[in-house]
Amino acid sequence: MALGKDESRHGMWSSRWLFVLAAAGSAVGLGNIWKFPYVAGENGGGAFVIIYLVCVALVGLPIMMAETLMGREGRHSPINTMRILSQEGRASGFWGVIGWMGVGAGFLILSYYGVIAGWALYYIFEMARGTFDAVTPETAGQVFDDFLANPWLMLLCQTVFMWLTIYIVGRGVIKGLETAIRLFMPLLFVLLLVLLGYGINSGGFQQGLDFMFRFNWSSIDADAWLIAMGQAFFTLSLGMGAIMAYGAYVPRDASITSTVATIAILDTFVAVAAGLAIFPVVFANGLEPGQGPGLMFVTLPLAFGQLPLGAVFGVVFFVLVSFAAITSAISLTEPALAYLVEEYNAKRARVAKSLGVLCWLLGIGTVLSFNAWQDVKFFGLTFFEAVDFVSQNIMLPLGGLLIALFTAYVMPKAIAQSQLGATDGPLWWLWKLLIGLIAPLGVLVVFIVTLFPCAQTLSCFGA
Ligand code: TRP
User: Fold this and answer.
1) Pocket test for ligand 1, best of 188, 332, 394 (most atoms within 8 A of CB)
2) What is the mean pLDDT of residues 220-228?
3) Which of 55, 151, 236, 264 is the most buried (most CB within 10 A)?
4) How much of the chain, in percent, has pLDDT values that exceed 70?
5) What is the distance in A from the centroid of ligand 1 to the CA of 60?
């Protein structure tokens, strides 16, 4: 294939909009619909939602711009892009760690992502069977508990999901994604609006609103900041090179700033809408907002059970969640796949299969952590919680920190300016302030306080 000077060998998005759709497809996933509501619930709601939004705006957005522009400059997999950019900036090979750690984080995340997405697949089936027609809160909880207690069934669902992902990925992101995204993203939005309407009429809307937006500082500690920061990275698919890999396929004439802002707004909208759809139902039925990972799988079926044509909506909803999960899972594999294709000239479909099988194997640990290994703890966390914590709360922010520092201090100014279409002026300095100071400092402070809790009260400094 003859390549233009400014193109990727893996293909190119046919327009700026396709990048918006693909990146939004990556960003919008289980993180928004499943994770955000339960994490917000576990961390007391209101104040958590606010600090999460702060993290998205001040840390997530600049880092997403940085990843996109790095990818478009390097036009390769994140590992090779980092090599190319380091040479351009006459910097050491150390920065390659961004690419490598990203591949590792993507692998860890996908291992459990496939399991949870399998739950959504299973719920398509339960919805279709009418299990939740006029269901009581107790029964809805019971159905979920029974499912979690059955490792074989969960393994089957995880296997189906991983198989689908690998099949699409093997065909290439661009070919594999285009149709799926064009159709399903808009449908997902419409359905969320319907659910939101239901939430508004459920009788618990005021309580739900209060819960999500009431500002209560006392529930905010260093841990909450760490989790909010991790969630911001996770939901925007940042810190592991997914967006960098997608950025490599962005046409040169697209504006990075407005494109990235669109993606972040879409993603935030979906997360907040999911919360506003779920919490009113939680309160209207006297359920517990902090119930953890089961939130979406107990409350939403309950809501569908009361809706006219609920089973139909329910099936459609879980189909869409599964699709949202697939478009996210695809992006988790892209950095590793693109690298293997570049390095070994390997066939995409073949490497996709090997990677998929390894990920599937690791995922079995997550499957078992909900039943047979429930009591096996690493530092007080189950296997699933430990993999989740290390990847989301440590590796992603660390990757993001390095990405910010690299863009701000290593990348030659001329390159950054030409990628952003910027010239010296107030906007450029605002960008420098965000990417060079606020974003890295934010991540760093959160890290230090987590690793050294005494820093919170300054007691380690003798204060
Ligand atoms: N953002 C996705 C979600 O919210 C998950 C995801 C896809 C992801 N790619 C990623 C998370 C890369 C971190 C890094 O469900």
Assistant:
1) 332
2) 84
3) 236
4) 96
5) 13
30 C-beta closer than 6 A to ligand 1: yes
Q: Does 1.10.4160 match the CATH number of domain 16-455? A: yes
- Please answer whether residues 151 and 368 qualify as being in contact, where contact means their C-beta atoms are separated by less than 8 angstroms: yes
User: What pLDDT is attached to residue 453?
Assistant: 67
Atom of ligand 1 nearest to the CA of 324: 15
Q: Is ligand 1 within 6 A of the CB of residue 32?
A: yes
Which residue stretches of 89-204 are H helix?
A: 97-128, 137-148, 151-170, 173-200
| Residue 203 backbone class (left: φ over 0; alpha: ψ -120 to 50; beta: rest) | left
Q: What is the pLDDT of residues 244-259, one digit of tens each?
A: 999 999 999 999 999 9
Q: What is the pLDDT of residues 327-363, one digit of tens each?
A: 999 999 999 999 999 999 989 899 999 999 999 999 9
Number of continuous H segments (helices) and E segments (strands) in the chain: 22, 0
Q: Which amino acid is at 69?
A: L
Distances (CA, A) of 13 to 119, 136, 174: 31, 47, 7
Lowest mean pLDDT among 13-27, 115-129, 358-372: 13-27
pTM greater than 0.85: yes
Mean pLDDT across the stretch 423-444?
A: 95
The pLDDT of residue 188 is above 80: yes
Alpha-carbon gap, residue 230 to 223, rounded angstroms: 10
Mutate to test the pocket of ligand 1, among 237, 238, 333, 388 (most ligand atoms within 8 A of CB): 237
* Measured torsion, CA atoms of residues 383, 274, 22, 394, in degrees rounded to the nearest 10: -30
> Which tokens belong to 48?
């958590």
